Amino acid sequence: MRLTSEYIGECSDGEDGAAQESTTQAASAQAEAAAKIVKHKGKLAFKALKGKVKSVKKALEAHGDNDTETESENGDNVRFKVSGSHRGPPYEYDNLILRQDLSKEHSGPVWTLRFSTDGRLMASAGQDLTVRVWVLRKAKSTFEDMRNKYSTKEGGEAAEASRTTPERPASEDDALFDPKPFCSYTGHTADILDLAWSKNYFLLSASFDKTVRLWHVSRQECLACFQHTEFVTGIAFHPRDDRYFLSGSLDARLRLWNIPDKKVALWNEVEGTGNRLITAAGFVQNGKYAAAGTYDGRCLLYETEYLKYHTQIHVRSSRGKNSKGRKITGIVPMPGEDKILIASNDSRVRLYDLKDLSMVCKYKGAVNRSSQIEASFSADGSHIISGSENGFVYLWRTMNDVSRSPTARRDVNDCYESFAAPVSSQGGGQVTAAVFAPVPGLFADEGISENQDVLVAADYNGCIHVYSPASRGQ
């Protein structure tokens, strides 16, 4: 029975106490039941919240683990975007234009792009089994003279006719490269994964056909073929003696080849209990060490003189989903510094100091979960460039500018700028390779100042695009 205030007022003292006690117990029981309900609902709400957080995380991972991005399109239809953590403008690459389209030669993905050391030649190769060499328009006559000089020695005057250069269409007046490849080399029977230039224009190509082939821009034929027992995933000329080159293979062996003798001078095998397949290789510290990247996320350093094991770096995060090492896809030395840049299949690019093997900075934004995408430096080492599986080219400052964001960490840089070619220019596929031109001063007479960068990107559809800042007057 529920007691009204009127009825309670008429009760005797004994009845009043019993009624109060009964009411208190009822209220306590109700409060306890309510608490249980709130607690249960709280658990359900927490589970629902966790589910939402997981779904948001998955969505972020699908877009490269980024903050909210800002995207725009400039007057030349180059799509430009920055990370949400970028405290701009001003931006550094928002005025890029699509300077030239070299997309009618390759069929299928272009896996690698490499400039010669002087920046006047660029090689490209990929799934179509052909190595193509592109020459800057202004340097074409120099290399034609080189080729004709050799051809004259071999075949008399018959080669002189090849020196005639057709007139360029008016639409190509702004082109930086000659629109047709200067050389096209065939001979490989499977995808070409890596390329390397020597200082005197020899070119190496590494392939899934288990060979490395040697070429020279003055010759049309293959000069030498170096047989391996497994797919060759990385190659590099010795930076101080280009009679030697380094190769890494899926047989877990790192080899130093003597080119004149056409044989292996030194070799070593990756040790360990993990997956020992070599997926990237190169020289660091001007040839003092040879580096090998593995499928299980290790970067091993060997003393080049005897190819003796020196040390290794475990390329991974200390915790979280990236705490397990992933395939290393590129190892590049930083210009003028004892540091190396390592890209891997956890969609991260990391810079390490070779003096103490510490990680200097981790760069986030690009998506690289299964591809062989490499990151590299600008000519002065101030910026980093990488392709991405989401169709954009990503750019970071090498040294994180924490002054632009008081909460930023020096060792994590997710403050990027990125861009992509318009779909109308046959773009839209994942960007499989992206590089800076190594000598910006070469383009001074093209309306591009020495402190501005020229960039080249290739994609899964076989497109190659050349980008530059808008020229004066554009």
Provide structural commentary:
This protein is an alpha+beta fold and 474 residues long. The chain has three helices and 31 strands. The chain has helices at residues 5-9, 13-62, 140-155; strands spanning 70-73, 79-82, 96-101, 110-115, 121-126, 131-135, 183-185, 192-197, 202-207, 211-216, 224-227, 232-237, 244-249, 253-258, 263-269, 278-284, 289-294, 298-303, 308-314, 328-333, 339-344, 348-353, 358-364, 375-377, 383-386, 393-397, 412-413, 417-420, 431-436, 455-459, 464-469. Strands 1-2-28-26-25-24 form a six-stranded antiparallel sheet, with no helix packed on it. It has a five-stranded mixed sheet with strand order 20-21-22-23-27, with no helix packed on it. A four-stranded antiparallel sheet has the order 3-31-30-29, with no helix packed on it. Strand 30 (455-459) and strand 31 (464-469) form a beta hairpin. It starts with a helix and ends in a 5-residue tail after the last strand. Mean pLDDT is 83; it is low at 1-21, 56-67 and 156-171.
Concise structural overview:
By secondary structure, the chain is α+β, with helices and mostly antiparallel strands.
What distinguishing features does this structure have?
474 residues, alpha+beta, 3 helices, 31 strands
In whole angstroms, how far apart are the ends?
90 Å
Find the count of extended strands (DSSP E, 2+ residues): 31
Largest sheet: 6 strands, antiparallel
Coarse morphology: globular
Count of alpha and pi helical runs: 3
Radius of gyration: 31 Å
* Helical residues, percent: 10-25%
State the assembly state of the protein chains. Answer: single chain
Mean pLDDT: 83
Question: Which class do the helix and strand fractions yield?
Answer: alpha+beta
Strand order of the largest sheet: 1-2-28-26-25-24
| Residue share in β-strands | 35-45%
Low-confidence stretches: 1-21, 56-67, 156-171
